[in-house]
Design brief:
The chain is α+β, with helices and mostly antiparallel strands and 279 residues long. 38% of the residues lie in helices and 10% in strands. It has a domain at 84-277: Muramoyl-pentapeptide Carboxypeptidase, domain 2 (2-Layer Sandwich), CATH 3.30.1380.10. It has ten helices and seven strands. The chain has a five-stranded mixed beta sheet with strand order 2-4-5-7-6. Strands 1-3 form a two-stranded antiparallel sheet. Bound molecules: zinc ion. Zinc ion is lined by residues 142, 178, 183, 185, 237.
Length: 279
């Protein structure tokens, strides 16, 4: 216990992840820190310009590593990484655009839940293919959640399970992927185990674990990753990251976004760590 190091990284840190080194080559290391700092400044300026104009900045290719690395801090980017130690900025962030995912024979969104546009389109494609393969109709249990709703949800989980139980089951407001509009909880009611770990053993759960990446989704909280993510197994919780990242993630056998981006484990909130080290 006791790691309270701030999460802001020096520019040199971006050279860390080995698979990125493999793709960019050693030459990049020789370019020096000044170039990096200037690149980040330019990107930041551009991002602010887009935001000021009420637009969403473009997402670059992952082969251009610098920009994606930068964008994991930005709530409005599909690459954003949010966890117990990386809160959304602003903490009550709401996506600029949300769309109701259309119901069909393949997808039941009778709760009329909303997602960010790219995540919504990808979920439709995923459900269509799942249905075409005879795996069943996908049901949307939960999608975008506001800051306020997440706060209520955490409160109710605390009442139900106590604080320790709530902490591994639900996120505090400002720390939930659902607040980005990029996460969705799904089930196939006909196969049971909705929002239960046994969903992972159903035909639908297995299909999703094997195929979600092809549509840009990852199963964010896997069976053995609690020490990194801080959450217990959630085979129903899908996070949209885009097809490029999802493919790389899957092909390289990566199991958490923290590992993918070489971020520190986020099993605990910083305030939990602080509280535990007070005598
Ligand atoms: Zn979820």
């Amino acid at each position: 216990m006791g790691n309270t190091t701030p999460l802001k990284r020096s520019p040199i840190f971006i050279f860390g992840p080995p698979f990125v080194l493999a793709s960019l080559g050693i030459a990049l290391i020789l370019q020096g820190g000044l170039f990096q700092a200037q690149s980040f400044e330019l990107i930041e300026e551009q991002t602010v310009e887009f935001q000021t104009a009420g637009l969403i900045p473009p997402t670059p290719f992952t082969s251009d590593y610098l920009y994606p690395r930068f964008t994991i801090d930005h709530a409005f980017q599909e690459l954003v990484v949010v966890n117990k130690q990386r809160e959304l900025d602003p903490i009550d962030y709401a996506p600029p655009t949300l769309v109701t995912v259309p119901s069909s024979a393949a997808l039941d969104n009778s709760r009329e839940l909303v997602l960010a546009p790219l995540a919504a389109a990808a979920l439709v494609d995923l459900a269509d293919e799942m249905f075409d393969q005879g795996v069943g109709q996908l049901f949307m249990n939960s999608a975008y959640r506001t800051y306020e709703y997440q706060a209520e949800l955490f409160e109710s989980k605390t009442t139900q399970y106590g604080l320790a139980g709530a902490l591994v089951r639900s996120a505090k407001a400002g720390h939930s992927e659902h607040q980005t509009g990029l996460a969705v909880d799904v089930s196939v009611p006909a196969q049971g185990c909705a929002i239960m770990t046994c969903f992972g053993d159903t035909e639908a759960g297995k299909w999703i674990a094997d195929n979600a990446w092809r549509f840009g989704y990852i199963v964010r909280y896997e069976e053995t990753t609690q020490a990194t993510t801080g959450y217990s197994y959630e085979p129903w919780h899908l996070r949209y990251v885009g097809i490029e990242i999802a493919r790389e993630y899957s092909e390289n056998g990566i199991h958490t976004l923290e590992d993918y981006w070489s971020l520190p484990p986020a099993e605990f909130y910083l305030e939990e760590i602080t509280a535990s080290t007070i005598d």
